[in-house]
Amino acid sequence: MTEKIDQDTKAQDIEKLWIFPAVRRRVLDDFYDLMILCNKCGYCKFIFAPDAKDARFVSQCPRGNIFKHLSYYASGTLEIARGIVEKRLAWSNTVEHILYTCTDCGHCQFWCNVAMRTHPLTIMEIMKETYVKEVAVPQHYKTIMTNIDVSHNPYGKPHEMRFAWLDNQKPPKSADVMLFIGDDVAYKNNKLAMATVNILQKLGISFGLLYEDEWHSGYLPFRGGFREKGKALLKHNFEALKKAGAKKVIVLSPHDYRTFKVDGPECGLSPDFEIYHVLEFLAPLLKENKDKIKPLNKKVTYHDPCQLVRHIMPFSITEQPREILKLLGIEVVEMPRNRLNTYCCGAGGAVPFGYPNVTKMIARIRLAEAASTGVKELVVSCPSCEASLGPISNEFGLLVENILILIQSAIGA
Length: 413
Description:
Elements: H1 2-19, H2 21-24, H3 32-35, H4 62-67, H5 74-85, H6 93-100, H7 107-115, H8 120-134, H9 139-151, E1 177-180, H10 183-188, H11 190-202, E2 208-209, H12 219-224, H13 227-243, E3 248-251, H14 254-266, E4 274-277, H15 278-288, E5 298-302, H16 319-327, E6 330-332, H17 351-354, H18 356-371, E7 377-380, H19 383-389, E8 399-402, H20 403-411
Parallel strand pairs: 1-2, 1-3, 3-4, 5-6, 5-7, 7-8
């Protein structure tokens, strides 16, 4: 009887390993069973066939589309991992390039769960962890990590300038509702930061800011192979928010939101507060205050950021932004690849830091798709997407606008 219980327990443990490898496995060799499971079905390369809307927009792996070689698709990268585990291949600069040009879009991981459950993106992250421990730290990540250590942000900007964009009316350091601004907004998009503050104040929401206690969320270390550093940053922010009395935390960047919602629990960090992406938080408030909205009356297409859809399943934030745009009197003309099939803008996984030209090439693919809808405005909800798509959007006759700016305009905030 005892032997039977032990067998059942072992079977349950194996099932947990299968479903949650990111939590249970942290050594590359331990993924060997998943590496050999890949049957090269192609789910990591293309849109799921019934979802295909336009033959021009069915390829789905950004780095694969750019470099046109099997090694740059998830199935090829798994073969490299297998070769390394089997001692047939060695780490090299080429392998580094293959790993660090991945934009962390999550298409391979999500759709492979439909087919074989090899968890390719997880394996690639373990490959990065192994690479930085045993071989070398990529040059662009040396700069990122040094900047985070010194200034608590990847750009190397002075930490005391994080909230320099605030006017004389400064929110408190402690409140039930806390706003986590994030690096991209604090240092690169002050307009978006002020729009968020104005919207919350216009809707009567009292909130606080962490000021000097807000550090980088941990997203870049997690994605670059520096898991322990990512965990330390995440723990600092969670503790600071708890100390500030937070019951609800509003996060602006989808990258930070994914880090809080997914990486936190996987690292054993369970916050004592609720975490909301800003659109998730605003959607019900705008419905309640729809009499304050002045319709904008225009037609746009909307870009779903990868981190708000595939990375946070099954609670993806796809309908809230569309509901908000409808409330604002805006008609959305969908791109062929939308919601769970969204195509990456090129700004994830620290690719803009190390390979900015790759980011531009990927962004141009997405902009061409947006232009194919016939509209002249592309709405985004991620500061990183705005930074990658916005500067070159005029090449396609498009204006890129953040949804928060549209909300601010519609409610007169």
